Amino acid sequence: MLQGASPRSPIMSWLPVAGDFRGDLRAALDQAKPIDALDGLAALAARRLGFLETVQLDRALARLDLKEAPGFQPVRLAILASSTVDHLPPAIRVAGLRRRLLIEVHSGAYGQYRQDLLDADSALHRFAPQAALFSLSAREVIASISLAATAAEVDETIGRFIAELRLLWRKAREIGAAVIQQTFIDVSEPLFGGYDRIVPGAPSAVVARLNGRLTEAAAEDEALLLDVARASQRDGIDAWFDVGRWLQGKLEIAPQAAPFYGDLAARILAALRGLSKKCLVLDLDNTLWGGVIGDDGLEGIVLGEGSAAGEAHLALQHYAKQLKERGVILAVCSKNDAKIAEAAFRDHPEMVLRREDFAAFQANWDDKAQNLKVIATRLNIGIDSLVFVDDNPIERARIRQSLPMVSVPELPDDAAHYVRCLADAGYFEAVAFTADDRSRAEQYAANAEREALLGSAESIDDFLRGLDMTAVYGPFTAVDHARVVQLINKTNQFNTTTRRYASEEVSQIMDDPNSLTLQFRLLDRLGDNGLISTMILRPTPAEDDVLEIENWVMSCRVFGRELEFEAMNIAVEAARERGARVLVAEYIPTPKNDVISKLYPSLGFTEVGRTAPANGATRWRLDLADYVARNTHIIGQEQQDDRSRDTRQIHPHSSRSAARRLDRVDDGNAA
Amino acid sequence: METRREDVPNWDSFNYINFIVAVEIEFGVKFKVADIESFPNVGAIVKETTKMLA
What we know:
The complex is a heterodimer. By secondary structure, chain A is α/β, with parallel strands linked by helices. Helix content of chain A is 40%, strand content 16%. Chain A is built from 26 helices and 18 strands. In chain A, strands 10, 11, 12, 13, 14, 15, 16, 17 and 18 form a nine-stranded mixed beta sheet that branches. In chain A, strands 2-1-3-4-5 form a five-stranded parallel beta sheet, with helices on both faces. In chain A, a hairpin with a 6-residue loop joins β13 and β14. Chain B is an all-alpha fold. Chain B has helices at 13-27, 33-38, 42-53. Chain A binds chain B through residues 1-7, 50-52, 55, 84, 86-87, 244-245, 247-249, 251, 255-256, and chain B through 13-14, 17-18, 20-22, 24-33, 36-37, 52.
């Protein structure tokens, strides 16, 4: 970087500019109630902030005297670093606030991470992190490899380093932390020039190899990657690394990159909590195509090959289509005549997206905020899981104002940069890619048919009978492990306790002979709905013939199909086989699970008192002797062993649960 | 202008880096590492900034 030039920063282009930051910060802090102040700070965190504003916001956050923060989730994150990272926690906390996460960060002395992990009495162990972020420099590996080293020697040294790293990952797992590994940033200077890539021991070649091996290890061990290597390629190394700061204080991530780094970290933490966005809602005119279809007509809109602007809009369509293929739901929200808008998708020869790609299609003259609410309701997902893309700044401002929980990227003026803006925002950050994600599009199509069937059926009974449903059930299996973890952690509506389980925890429960696990798939004549419900029953310490339903979740895509009744029939039978006499259960209400507030009484449980009135939880009991199995339109069928099913896993390295937890939509898709 | 690092309670190297970053961002300048190490007081930083902006 030239002396005298100001440092380049990675720009969070999708966030709207801050406006009067200081005034708004003061206004937030002037709120009488800490929770209102917190809301104000969260709103500020959703603006485009530089390094200094981020530090100021973080200091304001620290000043709040928060006893509890309803609507915000606490997370404990440890940073294990081999360089100075003191400047990163404020940015991580602010980016967390952007997602309504209250992140508590523990960072040990730099270079001490090995000792901290291995020493059971360390402050790190006492902190009990839920996630551990390894922020390591490639320098020590580069230093241990001579320039003359052969490819085999380089591989061996890197192999040893990665093996040690995996040991540390395992240690982090043992204390209950999900592992997040920062990729290695290449700050080396060319030595041979273009020939650097050919020399195995050249610093840049070592970093490239290191990242390659790291990726393989991460796939095998289910570590998640915080990809600063890629970010620094996109923004340029000067935006991410400032040699002056390195010399001055051993900072490997430049301070001006900290806000972006914080966002990368927070989006992974949010994804682990099931808080990634689920649905991309698109405007039409001047967003998916150039021009106004109602005025310009089918021939007049700008879309497709032959025009630079037309190709720019087409690129957004392609990107949306790819998002759909990885499991993101698409919807339309546009001020338009529905017939004209639908005809455009049917009749325009260059159109990449088709009408059937959209799970919801709101083209009318109503207020867009109202339409977004309709979309969320129809898809049976939270309104906070929507991303709304619109070229019109007035519409964007209006939605941010009336529905602050909806993410609205600040699209640039030039359509050529729409995709980049949407992609940079990382709304759909994933922590796995399961077979279920890949088949979601087909499941949508099947659901549309089911809806048609429901429309033509004489009665609900007729409809359910006509579906020929089979519930395939059994204990959690190794091949379904990733999907089970994903379903439990992403389901918000039909979730009795909203307890979240780490991948390892689920493995432990599976191995515990005293616990009973059940997973359910639902098949009908229109297809396989996938693995859509899980139940975890644990023994109670006091009485050995009492089993407690510690957690029960069901995907909303099979609501209204009587599966909860059939599942309970099956659970009661399985409990009886265990010699249990009684089932107990707890319902912990949340803003999202009201749909099952009457679940247990409807299954014949009786209330036995409130355990913790503060959270409104109720306890329920069922004497198995009194249970009368309910007739349903579902046939129960015990599952075959693991090997009989193709799980279409995507990570060839992973033995256990190749397909990892991922951003997906259990709460998606109305049944 | 005469204020030195020692004069500010709880001042540490991290605060100093933050301060330098703040000045660099605010005025769009970039200091030499040698200068950053040897600025004796706030006045010296102001003087160097003014020089670079001239």
